Amino acid sequence: MAAILLNLFCNPRARQPSPEAPDIAFAAPEAQERVRRFHHTLPTYQPTPLVALDQLARALGVGRIWIKDESKRFGLNAFKGLGASYAVCFTLADHLDMPPPLNFADFSQPRVRKALARLTLVTASDGNHGAAVAWMAAQLGCHSKVLLPHGTIAARLDAIRAFGGETIVIDGNYDDAVRRAARQADDQGAFLIQDTAWEGYEAIPERIMQGYLTLLDEALAQMGDTLPTHLFVPCGVGALAASLQAYLVKRFADQRPLLVVIEAAAADCYYRSMRAGGWEVIPVKGALETRMAGLACGEPTRPGWEILRRYADAFASARDDLAEAGMRRLAFPHPPDPPIEAGECGAVSTGCLCHMMQSETAQDGRKQLGLGPESRILLISTEGATDPDAYRRTVHRFKDDASAGR
Ligand SMILES: Cc1ncc(COP(=O)(O)O)c(C=O)c1O
């Protein structure tokens, strides 16, 4: 029997009136504006490309498809710099009593530089967030230390070390690394810059989610007057998906596009928890083995869980095959669509959409989500080829199949 590539759960609560109202003030229009202004002060800030894939839309029988290509973000090959930059600068400005508004240029004052040189940032990461924290530390002249799960590939360690970050690979999974990082930061009087929140550790994860608001802010501005009907967003701890979801609720209320949360099947904690009623978190334990390294998280961030269980329209649990299929689709498009380099986490949104539109087994899901000729779909590609060897193996080895299988 063929393996099931995608499981989908549509959230009956998403559009129902409910007394449950998770706190999404962090995504209010004033906050969106504050974060946008801060990002504009970063010397390397530029909106990432929003690319229309008209031929793919035609081939799949949907109205329009756009993909937001985060491989171009700050030269980091992933979207994470948006959250890390805002959270780090906000936290350190607060620590150093720097007056608002937050402006990156203020960190070059000699008094500030001297103080920064004594500080250390600590985080746990599957790779991309760690690289973003190390990048920010390097810009500011402070130290950084990143704890990573067992099995992290050399390319991800190198990306962190390139910014002078210290790397420690632990004997455990991502969630173990988070716990270890929290203990180390505590013991060493360092700043923990984590995207996962838990009771008593909420402020910095919230700043990280605020940083991600800029991604959607840019994409909607780039789309002009057109509003997407659907967003497909990859999900690890759920900080990104929850940030975009909160943005949509704040800005569009009931008229908001549908948001589909996509997890790796090997770490599909949201999907399992929602399937089981959505009342409590069912963590996924063990090695969390998936090619989508950034999605290998077995426990959600608390606010992510509260926001997504209440508002997200659907939860998809996707096998690695869909990420790989997505990578090939994007690398070898139907001309004149341009090629896009997307790593596993980045490409899974495309792989899922293609599967949903083309597989007989996905008919029900397609119908439930109302995907068809009227749909305008925004895919978030969160990374480039962050594992270059795997990218070569996945994309180039299958070049002919990919062309033939269009
Ligand atoms: C490339 C990439 N995409 C998506 C995600 C998921 O983001 P989150 O953990 O906020 O759900 C990550 C997280 O590390 C990532 O690195």
Structural commentary:
With 406 residues, the protein is of the alpha/beta class. It folds into two domains: 22-79 and 207-404, Rossmann fold; 81-204, 3-Layer(aba) Sandwich (Rossmann fold). It has 16 helices and eleven strands. Strand 4 (120-124), helix 5 (128-140) and strand 5 (143-148) form a beta-alpha-beta unit. The protein is globular. The mean pLDDT is 96. Bound molecules: pyridoxal-5'-phosphate. Pyridoxal-5'-phosphate (PLP) is lined by residues 78, 126, 128-129, 195, 234-241, 294-295, 297, 345-346, 382-383.
Note the run of SSEs as H and E.
EHEHEHHEHEHEHEHEHEHHEHHHEHH
Q: What assembly state would you assign to the polypeptide chains in this entry? A: single chain
The tally of beta strands, per DSSP, is 11
**Ligand types:** pyridoxal-5'-phosphate
Protein topology:
Layout (H helix, E strand, L loop, with lengths): L5 E5 L18 H12 L9 E3 L1 H7 L3 E6 L11 H15 L14 H7 L3 E5 L3 H13 L2 E6 L5 H8 L4 E4 L4 H15 L2 E2 L10 H21 L6 E5 L4 H14 L5 E7 L4 H7 L26 H10 L2 E5 L1 H12 L12 H15 L4 H6 L7 E6 L6 H9 L2 H6 L2
Parallel strand pairs: 3-11, 4-5, 4-7, 5-6, 8-9, 8-11, 9-10
Antiparallel strand pairs: 1-10, 2-3
Helix pairs in contact: 1-8, 3-5, 3-8, 5-6, 8-9, 9-11, 12-13, 12-15
The site of pyridoxal-5'-phosphate has 20 residues, from helix 5, helix 9 and helix 13.
Please outline what is shown here.
With 406 residues, this protein is an alpha/beta fold. Helix content is 44%, strand content 13%.
